[in-house]
Amino acid sequence: MKENGGHEPIFCTIIPPHVLDKLTQADEPGVARAARHTLQRDAFERTQRRLTTVLGAPAVAVPAATGTPRRTIYDAQHRTSLPGTKVRGEGSEPGQDATVNRAYAGLGATYELFFTAFGRDSIDGGGLPLDATVHYDEDYNNAFWNGEQMVFGDGDGEIFLDFTLPIDVIGHELAHGVTQYTANLTYFGQPGALNESLSDVFGSLIKQQTLGQTADQADWLIGAGLLAPRVTGVALRSMKAPGTAYDDDVLGKDPQPATMDDYVRTGRDNGGVHINSGIPNHAFYLAATTLGGHAWERAGQIWYDVLTGGELAEDANFAEFAELTVTAARARFGDGEELLAVQKAWERVGVREA
User: Fold this and answer.
1) Which of 37, 172, 274, 282 is catalytic?
2) pLDDT tens-digit series, residues 315-344
3) Closest Cα to residue 20, out of 48, 1, 46?
4) Which of 33-47, 74-88, 313-327, 334-348 has the lowest mean pLDDT?
5) Of 170, 200, 189, 144, residue with least CA distance to 11
6) Spatial distance between the Cα atoms of 110 and 108, rounded to a whole number of angstroms
7) Which of 29, 119, 292, 306 shows a CA-CA span of 20 to 30 A to 91?
8) Residue among 45, 158, 173, 338 flagged as catalytic
C-alpha cells in the first residue's frame, strides 16, 4: 500500500490505445487523422508523466480538511500547455461554457461519493485540490489523469463527443488517483486490469449516486453519451454485459470478456488492461445487483475496503483480489448475504479465490 507517500503516478486514458489504433485504419481521412494525433499526444503526455515522476512533482500545500472539495477548472483553449487559463474556482457561479460547468460538477460528484460513502477527503484522503483542464488540443479524442490533474478533450465530433459529457468518465479517471494513493496497482496484465476495473466501479457508483439510482435501476454502462450519433454502440464498456457496448464498422467491436473462459492474452494495451477489466467489472455488477439497494453501501464498501485496506499487493491478480473481497465482506458484514453474493459473483465469472 502506498498511502501517505511512495505512490507512483501513472498516465491513464479513458480511450485505450487499441481503440485508437483501430481508428487510424479508417477510410475517412478526418477520423484517421484525429486518431493518429490523439495517439501522438498521449505518447507525449505519457513521457512527460514519467519525467515528472523521476524529477519529482512540485509539492502541493493542502489546507486542513473541511469536508468540501477544492476545485479549479482551467481552459487550454485548444492548445496543449497545462494547466491553461483558470476559468472557474471553488464556489464560483456557473458560466456560459457547458464543458467547464460539467467538469466542475463531475469533480464535485466524485468528491461527494468518496466523502459521503467512504469518509475519504478527496482522492488522496487528505483534501487534495482537484484540478481539471478542458478544451485540450484540437480534435483530441481522450480524457486522462496524469498523476496530478484531469484533462479533457472535446472529441472529434465524428466518433467521440465532448469527454465531460459522461460523469462516470470523470469519476473513472479521478478514481485512478485514488488507486495511485492507495494500492498503487501495477499498470500491466491482471493488476492493470484491476486498476481499470476499480475506476469503472467507482465511476459507475459516482453516476449512480448523482442520479439517485439503486443497483437495479442503473444502466451499468461506462461512457454512455460519449459516442457520436453515427457510431453503432451505447457506451465504451458495459459492466452488465461486457463485450456488447459497441459493434461498429469504424470503431470495431467491444473486445471485453465477461468470464475467464474468454480471457484475452495480449501484449497490446499493457497486457489487455482495458480488455480483461470486463471480468472483475462483471463480478462487481453481479455482487451489487444480487444485494440490491444502493451499490455503494455494500458491494462498493467491500471493494473500497480492499483497495484501501493495505493488504492488496501492487501486482495482485484476479484470484488474490477476489480472496480479499471475500475477507472484507466477512470482516464488515459477517457470514451473511454480502459474503455469499461476493463469493457467487467471482464463481460466475470463473475466478477462484487464491
Assistant:
1) 274
2) 999 999 999 999 999 999 999 999 999 999
3) 46
4) 33-47
5) 144
6) 5
7) 119
8) 173
